[in-house]
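Hi W., the phenylalanine complex you wanted:
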Amino acid sequence: MSNQREQFRSRLGFILAAAGSAVGIGNLVGFPVNAAKSGGAAFLLIYAAFVVVICLPVMMAEMALGRKTQRNPLGAYQAVAGKGSLWRFGGWLALITPFMIAVFYQVLTVWLLGYFIGAVSGNLEAMAAPGYFGEFINANGVFIYLVILTMVVGIILNSGVQNGIERLAKILMPSLFVMLIVLTIFVLTLPNALVGVKYYLVPDFSKINLEVVNLALSQAFFSLSLGMGILITYGSYVSSKESVAGGAKMVAAVDTSVAFFAGLLILPAIFVFNPDTDTAELSSSSVSLVFSFLPKIFLSLQALVGYVGASLFASAFFLLVFFAALTSQVSILQVPISAFQDELKFSRFKSVLALGLCAGLLVIASTVSFGMSSFFTEFVSYAGQTKSFFDVIIDIFYETILPLNGFIICLFVVYKWRRSDFNDEMSIGDEAFDKSLTKKYVNLALGTFVPAILLFVFVSTVLLKFF
Ligand code: PHE
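Structure:
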């Protein structure tokens, strides 16, 4: 069985695919918004520290478990702990979480596709008008974009790990890096950009409090695609010639650099538009920033580069974020696909179809929860607020559950799978690991303070969100 499993063709292919998963809406939009409202470089420093101190060990734990067991998350937990063990619930969580994240991410990716097509077809002016976003998400056109995106994603996944995911990442990721750099350089040459750069890079530590620290950790976790079963699954396609620790460090470095550059692109762009930008406007959610605020900013560029120039800039930006979202979306959908293939022995095609059917219904329910259906729009109430179906998915699977999944994986790897087996796996393809500082650090961290911190974050989020 294991020798039939697909593998990434090369080290570069694996790193680009994993970076493709990591680099997503979280980096390009979530990070700049959070940095803007939480002290700029002060947030950046805390974020980067969490990436190294907390996220990297978890990343290695996930990848090593996947490569050792050659399975999807559910299969991986069961392969180590046995089918009847309670640990299998950890596996189920690591399978259900990505499935549900994929549902809301599909909705966002559909909107990005719609905005890209809108900007390319010269609609920037309409897109920048107040109220456009609300109309756009409630118009039937979103279903057309949904069908297009679903087919594109289905075709990629049906082509497999090597010919679908790896090939896509090899084309899109380099294009994404180039676009990001070109757009950033362009923005930096515009008048007033330096005000934004200063706002971003001069740290304001007075904004730091426990909530911001919590936010930085959740942001880092989401951005690196941790707790979603993705790296367990991708680990299962990594050849034994590769170093897990080296791959994880590369992916974290790429992901953090992209987040950094996204800040350098978005914040100055905002200040070019309006040097006296009211930073309160930045504190709104990432969603309203991308879909309501940024089109306004892009349109304002027409004073400098004309309407065509502004439309080109907007098109390039939405294409950039769309590419990033697409490579993330295929990575997360590969998790349930590999579960169908491993556990139910479905063919790849059958797995893609089965997944499309299950996820498709939930995506439609999410799409209509912005007003088209009152049942899904006013789905439940808790903590004194009415929540839509889409909100509930976000609250549970984006805001809350990832640290819990991270907590479980740490305990599982260290206390059930055992450190020695973990270390043996880490040493495969990496002779230097055994004597490295990385080994000492990761072993200590995974068994002690990392799970403790993750549990703390999970419990405090549950208390804040749901009570
Ligand atoms: N790291 C991704 C991001 O920043 C998170 C993600 C991965 C979300 C895969 C959905 C699917 O956007």
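The chain has a mean pLDDT of 93.

W.
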